[in-house]
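Task: complex structure prediction.
Instruction: return C-alpha cells for all chains below.
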Amino acid sequence: MSAAPAPQPESVTDLVEGLAHSARKAQRVLARMDSPAKEQALKLAATALRAAEADILAANARDMANGETNGLTGAMLDRLKLTPERLAGMADAVEQVASLADPVGEVISEAARPNGMVLQRLRIPVGVIGIIYESRPNVTADAAALCVRSGNATILRGGSEAVHSNRAIHKALVAGLVEGGVPAEAVQLMPTQDRAAVGAMLAAAGLIDMIVPRGGKSLVARVQADARVPVLAHLDGINHTFVHAAADPAMAKAIVLNAKMRRTGICGAMETLLIDATYPDPHGLVEPLLEAGCELRGDARARAIDPRIALAAANDWDTEYLDAILSVAVVDGLDAALAHIAAHASGHTDAIVTDDQAVADRFLAEVDSAIVMHNASSQFADGGEFGLGAEIGIATGRLHARGPVALEGLTTYKWLVRGAGQVRP
Amino acid sequence: MSAAPAPQPESVTDLVEGLAHSARKAQRVLARMDSPAKEQALKLAATALRAAEADILAANARDMANGETNGLTGAMLDRLKLTPERLAGMADAVEQVASLADPVGEVISEAARPNGMVLQRLRIPVGVIGIIYESRPNVTADAAALCVRSGNATILRGGSEAVHSNRAIHKALVAGLVEGGVPAEAVQLMPTQDRAAVGAMLAAAGLIDMIVPRGGKSLVARVQADARVPVLAHLDGINHTFVHAAADPAMAKAIVLNAKMRRTGICGAMETLLIDATYPDPHGLVEPLLEAGCELRGDARARAIDPRIALAAANDWDTEYLDAILSVAVVDGLDAALAHIAAHASGHTDAIVTDDQAVADRFLAEVDSAIVMHNASSQFADGGEFGLGAEIGIATGRLHARGPVALEGLTTYKWLVRGAGQVRP
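Output:
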C-alpha cells in the first residue's frame, strides 16, 4: 500500500469531530431500537463475519506479512493472527453478546412525590464510546457488539499492525448490522492510522462520552494521562493473596498455585503472596510454585522458608510481573496483611484464604479493591466468570463501574418526571 | 483540549499529598463506622455549630468587613453573610443529613455461580472527595455532612473571601465529629488560600477520588478543563420547555411562567421556550412573562406573536441567562422540538407540556438530558424536590451520576466473592 500523506493535526480534529457527530446521530436511531431488533442485527453481523471469512483471512495474511517484515515478536504475531477457528470464535462471541439481556430501559428506581409527580430513573446507553486498542483484531468485533447491544455508538481505533484485518472485520460487521436496521455510522472505524487521531479522540470531551483503552500498560497510561473524556480502564493488577493462619493447607496450596500459574499473563493473576507468620505449612505453598517454574522474590522472613527464594527489591512489591514471578512476604496476621495491601495493591483483585469466618469478613470489609475474594483464586476476576456474559474490560477506577465491566457499565440513566401541571411553590 | 496542568510549586503539591494521605487513612476508619455512629457524630457536629455561634459570627464579620473593603458586590456580600438565622439553618441542615438513610452497605446485586461462588456487589464510599467552592460558607457544613454521612473523607477548599467563616465553621464541625468518634482528618480544610493548591487538588489523581466544584461557571469550567481527578459537576442549565399543540392552555401558562420566573437564577430555570406552531394560544404564554418583567428574544415566527419580543441573536439559543430573559422559538411539532433540543440543550432539564400521552412518551424517550419532564415545571430540578433529602449538586455529565446528586452519588461499589476453595480450570 502506498503511504498517503499524514493528515495535519487540525484536519484530524475535524475528522474526529465529524465521526463523533455522525456517531451521535446514529446513536439516537440505535437508542430507539428495541432489544429484539438489536439482537437480530447482531446475529446478522455474526453471519456476515462468517460469510466474509476469505476476505478477513486474506486481509489478516497481509497484516501478518507486514508484521514479520516489521519485526513483531512471536507473541505479538500470535495476538494478531486469525485462523478459521479464531474467526468462528469471534462470530460466536458476537452471537453470544446478541443474546445477553439488554440493560437499556430498566427502571432503576421509582417514587411518587407528595405533590403527585412520579419520578423514575431509567437506564439508557452512555452514548458515543471510543475504543482504543492494540493488536488483537477480535476487539473490533467484541467491542462493537457490546456497544451495539447496549445501544451505544462506537468509534474504533485499532493498532496499525492490524489495520487490514480490522477493516475487513469492520466491513463485514457493519454490512450485517445495516441489514438489521442499525445505521452504518453507529460502528465506525477510524479511517486513518495517524497517531494524532488518538489525541483528537482523547480531547473530544462532549463529543465522545467515554473512552475504553484496551492494550498494554503504556497505551492505557497514555490514555489516562491525556484524556479529557472520561476513561474506563485498568492500569495494573497487583493482586495479593493472603494465606491466613487458619487457612486449610490443601485449599491454600491449590488456590495459590492456580492464582499465579494457571495463566501468568492475565490481569487477574496473583503478583504477591502474603503468608501469615503463624500459618503452619508455608513450605507447602512455596514448593509447588518453585516446582512449576515460578521465580520467587521475598523478604527476609520469606527467604527463611526456602533458600531458593531470591531477595526482593523495594519495587517488587509494586510490580505487576504478568509472568512466572511472584513476590512473597511473611506478615504478622490480618492487620499486617491489610496494611501491606493498602500500601501496595492496585485496586484490582485481592484474596484471603482462611477458615476463620470473622477474619474473612474483616478482610472483605476492609480491603478497598474492585474485587475482594474469600477462598477463591484471583484468576476468576473476569466478566465471563462473573456471569456477565462478556466484558469490555476490568475497571480499577472508583467511579461509574468497577471490576469486570459488561453491558451495564456501558449504560447510564436519566430521570423521568411525570406531572399533571405541577409548578414549584 | 488543555494540556496537563502546569507543574505546581513543590511545597503545595506536597501539602495536598499530605492532606490526601491523612484523609485516606481517616476514611478507612470512617468507612468502618456504622450508620448510627455516623448519624450521632453529625448530630454532635450540629450541636457544636450552634454552640460556636459567637465565634462563627465574629469570623464572618471579619470576612464581611474585608469584602466591603475589597469591593465585593452586594450579591456577593449577601452570599457571604451569616446571621443567627442562617447559622441555625446550617446546623439544621447538618442534622437533616444525619438522619438520611445511609447508602453504604447496600447489596446492589447478588448471584451464585454454577461453581458455587457467591458474588455480591456492595455499595461503599467513593473515598476522598475534594470540594472546591466559592463564597457561600454554608457549603463547608453541607458538603462535609454529606461526605461524612456517606463514609467519605473530604478536603474542602473554599474561597478567600470566606476564609475566616470557613475556618470557624470547620473548627466547630470537626470538634463535634471528633466527639462522635470520627477522625479529625476525615474533614479537612485547605490551610492555604494559595491558588496553586486548587491546581494541586485537580492534579491529585489516585490521591483524591472525585472533585465536586460548587460555584460560578468560570470556576466549574476551570475545574473541568484542568482536572486529572474525575469531576462531578454541572456547567450549564440551558433548559427547554416545549408547549405542544395538545397542551392544556391553563397548565401551559402556569408551567411556563413558573419555570422561568419563580427564581431566574437557579440552574433549573427555563432558558428557552419552544411553542408548537399549531398551539392555539401562544399569546397566552408570552403575555404573562412580559407582564412579569421578562425580556423575550425570539425568532421571526415568535416575534409575530407579540412585537415586544426582540430578535434573538444566534448565540441566544445557547445561552444560560440565569436572569429574567428568555429565548422563544416557534417550532413545527414534536420532531422540530426534539431537533432544537438535541442541538442546543446542555443535558440538564428539558420539559414538554401536552395532553397527548403518545407525544409525551416520545419526548421522554428521545430527549437525552439528565432530567426529562412531562407537565411539570423545570424548577423542580433539585435534590430536595426529588426526595433525596439534600444535594451535593446537579451533574450534567453522563457517567457515574446524573441530575441531582445526594448520598448515593457519593458511593461506588466493590465485588465480594465468597468461595469454598474454587480454582479456575
